[in-house]
Here is the input.
Amino acid sequence: MTAQPDDQRPAWWVPRVLAAAVATTVVIGGVTWAADRGRPAAPTDGVVDETRATGSTGEEQEPRDLAVTTYAAARGGTLLFADRHLVEDATGDDVQVAVEQLVSRQVVDDDLAPAWPRVEARVATRVGSDRVTVDLAGLDTDVDVDREEAATALQALVWTVDTATRSRLPVEVLLDGAPTEELWGVPLGEPVVPDETAVSRVLVDSPADGAVVSSAFTVRGWARVEDGRVTWRLLDGDEVVREGTAGTERPGEVASYAADVSSPVGDFTLVVSLVDGSRDTKRLRVR
Here is the structure.
């Protein structure tokens, strides 16, 4: 089995969900992408990073256990957070699998709820030089989805795609292979661009929620903060067990951070926060 990033094994295991919830149609054009296991899965630049290309094939890959990041909404709200989990025996490209997970509403963090409405679709993805195309086949557009929920779902789609490709590319949405002017009241005449205000200003990419980690582990994620500093705390209830700070690569912009943590054994809550009160939390077991 493939290890969780940084050799951190989650306490849960996501079963084979691809065949049941979403039928797969693999349509990969341009390049395919492999996850960079050593870095947080944050979008970076405005174009695809060609150094991460693994080749151009339209074929299914050998089954593997793949760590993917999708985006889910805070319960009772629309702000998006990263939800990192493992998919067993995945055969599709990283982008393909990640989008399938989003559309099939797979969420493992108990603090989050699926951002995609209860509408199934078959997914096909194509990565180009200036956009990523996502074809949703069999999507029921007559389902009652309000515009705010639809806008959140489309932003979750864009951020899931861009995280998988390590890019900031817009996403062109097709329905049954054809362009569409709108979806559930949201205009789609142009590709959907990532909106930084749709996601939390600070996200933890790894460890994942519910992960079992060693006493020395690394917290990775990304943030958008003017002074480029994030604060992390390891809590046992209300007691602060460990704490520290980390810097982002580019203050004021969306950028990655990393913090090395040395922890006692036990069950803790990791809290990563910014000075404005933005925060992300993960439950961890240290052994």
About this structure: The first strand starts at residue 9 and ends at 10. The chain has two domains: 5-198, 202-286. The helical segments are 18-21, 94-103, 147-165. Confidence is low (pLDDT under 50) at residues 1-58.
